[in-house]
Amino acid sequence: MSSGPPPDASAEDLAGDLSAATISKKQLKKDARKAEKAEKAAQRQQQQQPQADADDPFAANYGDVPVEEIQSKTISGRVWTEIADLDDAAAGRSVIIRGAAQAIRPVSKKMAFVVLRQSMCTVQCVLVASVDAGVSTQMVRFATSLSKESIVDIEGVVSLPKEPLKATTQQVEIQVRKIYCINRATPTLPINLEDASRSEAEFEKAEQAGEKLVRVGQDTRLNYRAIDLRTPSNQAIFRIQCQVENKFREFLLSKNFVGIHSPKLIAGSSEGGAAVFKLQYNGQPACLAQSPQLYKQMAICGGFERVFEVGPVFRAENSNTHRHLCEFVGLDAEMEIKEHYFEVCDIIDGLFVAIFKHLNENCKKELETINKQYPFEPLKYLEKTLKLTYEEGIQMLKEAGTEIEPMGDLNTEAEKKLGRLVKEKYGTEFFILYRYPLAVRPFYTMPCYDNPAYSNSFDVFIRGEEIISGAQRIHTPELLTKRATECGIDASTIASYIESFSILLHLILISIYGHHCSYGAPPHGGFGVGLERVVMLFCALNNIRKTSLFPRDPQRLVP
């Protein structure tokens, strides 16, 4: 399918979309020089850092912790408190917390604020020089000398502020009694988290006011991904992703599916076509698996009845678009069919409605956090998922003035338009389109009983973009061999797969094992979906690189 950047893409993403985060040699050298300067600056700063003053009676309450003290030297028995657990009920309690110094604000020689961040939560810590509190002016100076993102331990007493706090997630303060730096961050970071966390609306507001804010581009974000991941929206995105994966497993397990793990090094193409990564495997030509398809089906032949897999998928497509990756996390399932491939569609219906409900009900905080930086409308879906035939979808497009190549696949523009038409007519952004032309489906797809030009296949769409491709599979060896040849696949490379479906003796087994084997396979079908694409579309994000922890596209192999 052809594809391109979405019409609502921000300048940040359009700038890096087609280039797909290309890293030039010149840029690498520039980054290396920058890192070297930062390292030297850090060393100078370290030498100049105010350490605990021997004459300070409270010197033991602050300072940089020596490395040997954090090399698993002892187990102190201290109880640590999560920043997320700091609320009104904790007022008056003494706590120990650890986090990254997100902000440091000196007020005077005797007072300073340090905002500590742990995951998605932040809390304001207050230092006030006082003999009763055990806080000296030297301790305040030490706190203000810390660089942003340094890892810090703080011990103090929880208190309630007089006014609501706008800059932190937790509506309490910590009156600091002790502060120790575990690891200092370099003073000059390549990414400022405040810049990387801004929404498009903030940039527009600043521009109208005549201010110029720093925009962190996609290339820079991905080059320094370990820092970029600290932003609230990224923390939320990957927690959402975790929930989608967990719900996928949980739902299918409840439907008697068995989790499996298939090999990713294989002898032949999984899907057909040229989009495969080739390599040498102990002197033999091999490929990285384009999907676990063949092995899912062989597991069905092995008597498992229903299986699923969560694992990496590799596609050597030179697609520099907003929605394609060369490596992604595949959520795959396969199951026996008793009568009709709609049994597979019903599993998909129940699965995704369960996922959507779970996210909306249990991930409100994460969704709100993403919405602050990347505003989006909640996904519209029906309790019973809408199913339309391919021909019905084509007819809707024709009536709206869009012509589609006869018996051809839908391109990106057509998918998006169909998504808009379905939303207007049926009030849903999640639907199934089934009975696709056989010519646009993989070789193992079962033809329709009443018209072999069509297939027992389907695609599933969210917000006008395909997320799932599935079908009933061919389970007879003769038809499998015929279809593989028609699709340009060397049947000898998938011989063991074809053999799994045969009740006949195959010559290759005679030559290898020298004995007769009998095989059989029940009717079956399944589907595959990219985890990153599900999260991208549920949250209406405009680039799949936002939902891939360390993306691999045609141009990017690091970090």
Describe the structure.
This protein has 559 residues and is an alpha+beta fold. It folds into three domains: 10-15 and 190-228, no CATH class; 20-183, Beta Barrel (OB fold (Dihydrolipoamide Acetyltransferase, E2P)), CATH 2.40.50; 232-475 and 521-547, Bira Bifunctional Protein, Domain 2 (BirA Bifunctional Protein, domain 2). It is 33% helix and 21% strand. It contains 17 helices and 17 strands. The protein has helices at residues 11-17, 25-48, 137-145, 193-196, 200-208, 218-223, 225-228, 232-254, 293-304, 342-362, 364-373, 390-399, 412-426, 477-486, 495-499, 507-513, 531-538; strands at residues 62-64, 94-108, 111-118, 121-128, 151-159, 173-183, 258-259, 265-266, 278-281, 284-288, 306-314, 327-336, 386-389, 430-434, 457-462, 465-473, 524-530. The strands form three sheets. The chain has an eight-stranded mixed sheet with strand order 7-11-12-17-16-15-14-13. Strands 2-3-4-6-5 form a five-stranded mixed β-barrel. Strand 15 (457-462) and strand 16 form a beta hairpin. Helix 8 (232-254) packs across helix 10 and helix 12 (390-399) packs across helix 13 (412-426). The radius of gyration is 29 Å and the shape is elongated. The model is unreliable at 1-22 and 501-518 (pLDDT under 50). Residues 238-559 form the Aminoacyl-transfer RNA synthetases class-II family profile domain. It holds the Pfam family tRNA-synt_2.
Keywords:
17 strands; 3 domains; about 550 residues; OB fold (Dihydrolipoamide Acetyltransferase, E2P); alpha+beta; elongated; BirA Bifunctional Protein, domain 2; aa-tRNA-synth_II; 8-stranded mixed beta sheet; about 20% strand; 5-stranded mixed barrel
